[in-house]
Write a structure and sequence with these properties.
- The protein is mainly alpha-helical and 189 residues long.
- The longest helix has 23 residues, at 21-43.
- The chain contains ten helices and no strands.
């Protein structure tokens, strides 16, 4: 039997559904830095980021049975999709919704300076080389790649957001990814 570090996200989430708390803990630690980095970048507010991250993982726990693994694929896009939805919901309502946390009977956490420092540390712990390369893309390609890859938006939605045609949105994503691929290959040499 593989250890939790060797198990795929799908295997961990299946174990969560079966009641394995340790599997959820490992899943949480695996994806927390990515979720925190995404939310902090979008909100620029450490407290809102912490609140939203808690709600994201409460929802992840509640909806674990909905995850459909594709081979040994990562649940990162699924988790980031939940994070994006929680962020959009909080912007629409003007506050962080805590429905999933209340459903699990989790009390809200009070954050101190150490907690906020930890948010910064987690945000810095993600795949920084790739994220830094994304940030170096031309603005239009960067926005398109972020929307498609990190936030898993549909091309039609990206086109509306970027005020362009769907074809142009696809081209921007394709060119941005090609540029990233070239930069990563150069870095390996």
């Amino acid at each position: 039997m593989p250890t939790d570090r060797q198990r795929t996200d799908g295997e961990l989430l299946a174990a969560v559904v079966a009641g394995d708390g340790q599997a959820f803990s490992n899943f949480y630690r695996r994806h927390l830095p990515t979720v925190v980095a995404f939310l902090l970048r979008e909100t620029a507010d450490r407290e809102a980021t912490a609140d939203l991250a808690a709600e994201v993982f409460a929802a992840t726990f509640l909806f674990a049975r909905r995850f459909r693994a594709r081979g040994a694929g990562s649940a990162r896009p699924w988790v980031l999709g939940i994070a994006r939805n929680k962020l959009l919901e909080s912007r629409r309502r003007g506050r962080v919704e805590d429905k999933a946390r209340r459903r699990l009977a989790f009390e809200p956490e009070l954050l101190d300076d150490d907690d906020l420092t930890r948010v910064d540390e987690l945000a810095a712990a993600t795949d920084q080389p790739v994220l830094e390369l994304v940030e170096q893309l031309p603005e239009r390609q960067r926005d398109a790649v972020r929307s498609r890859v990190l936030e898993e938006r549909e091309y039609g939605e990206i086109a509306r957001q970027l005020n362009c045609s769907e074809l142009v949105a696809r081209q921007r994503v394709s060119r941005g990814l090609a540029r990233l691929r070239d930069q990563l290959r150069e870095g390996e040499r």
